[in-house]
Amino acid sequence: MPETSPGGYGARPAVAADQAATLRRLFGGTGPRMLPIVIPGSVDDDRVGLLAGFAAAVARQQGTTLALDAARLHLASSLGVSLRRDLADVLARHASLDAALAPAAPRLAVASAARALAGGAAGPAPRLDRVLAGAGIDAARYDWILAFIGIRALACLRGLPSSHADDGEVLVAVRPTARSLDAALAVVRAGQAAADMRVFRLLFLGMDRSAAGTLFERMAALRPGGRHVELRFGGVLNGPAGAERVAAAACGWDLTRIAATGAGADLEMVS
Predict the structure, then answer these.
(1) Is the pTM of this model over 0.85?
(2) Domain containing 239 — which CATH number?
(3) Quick one: which of 69, 105, 131, 232 could link to 7 by a disulfide (CB 3.0–4.6 Å)?
């Protein structure tokens, strides 16, 4: 039976998800689902391991997956992979793609993109799908793209569908710290300003379900962004079982899809 939690967290059966994915490929075109995971602040090695386990679980359950580390998590190292370069070097033609992207587990590849998606004095972060196309990454090869980004790179998500409250969901990592509430609310405010984001799922790292549920209710009661923003429960990552549960639930979320039309691809909704 699917697990339920605050905000209606639950999982669709994996078989149904696989059938739906097959039908989309046959009749609705190809292209991966895009799941941005915003990491406010630094994350210790143990919790990076939880995020790496989540990426591997998505690949096992949902299909070929690309994990983009644009938050300086050293996700590749946690997955046992050594990457020498960033996608910024590939875009500048200073390195080949295989220096910044490598297989990490069955059906899972990882790429470093912290500099490629960095905003700053030179301007806002470039749009994520255009960085992928410019680096020569064929989106059609993947079923899912997990984009781990920092709060300063939120502008890379601009242009994703967000005209309705249930479009283009974004995961926000919440750590068990005294300032976790303020950090998550800062992401909501920055996401609205940078990319007009409206739906945020809170993913609790290293907490038990009771503590996570209590913190979620406190955040939801604050109504950040007013009626224009919706907070949803994204689940708890506290070990391998939690990673499998959240990965299973993700197939039921309202995510965007990068249309597999080559460079400069537009984004479409996955129904």
Answers:
(1) no
(2) 3.40.50.300
(3) 232
Residue 20 and residue 2: Cα distance in Å, rounded?
Answer: 18
- For position 158, what pLDDT does the model report? 77
The pLDDT value given to residue 110? 97
Helix axes 209-222 and 180-195, enclosed angle (nearest 10) = 50
Residues 208/197, Cβ–Cβ less than 8 Å: no
pLDDT score at 5:
41
- Give the number of domains in the chain: 1
pLDDT score for 32: 81
In a domain, 21, yes or no: no
Residue type, 98: D
Question: Which stretches in the chain have pLDDT values below 70?
Answer: 1-31, 119-123, 159-167, 195, 224-227, 258-271
What is the reported pLDDT for 119?
A: 63
Give Cα 108 distance to the centre of its chain: 14
Q: Which residues of 149-185 are buried (b: 16+ CB within 10 A; e: fewer)?
A: bbbbbbbbbbbbbbeeeebbbbbbbbbeeeebeebbb
Q: Which domain holds residue 193?
A: 32-155+166-261
Q: And the tokens for 162? A: 């967000």
Alpha-carbon span 125 to 113, nearest angstrom: 11
Provide the residue count of the chain. Answer: 271
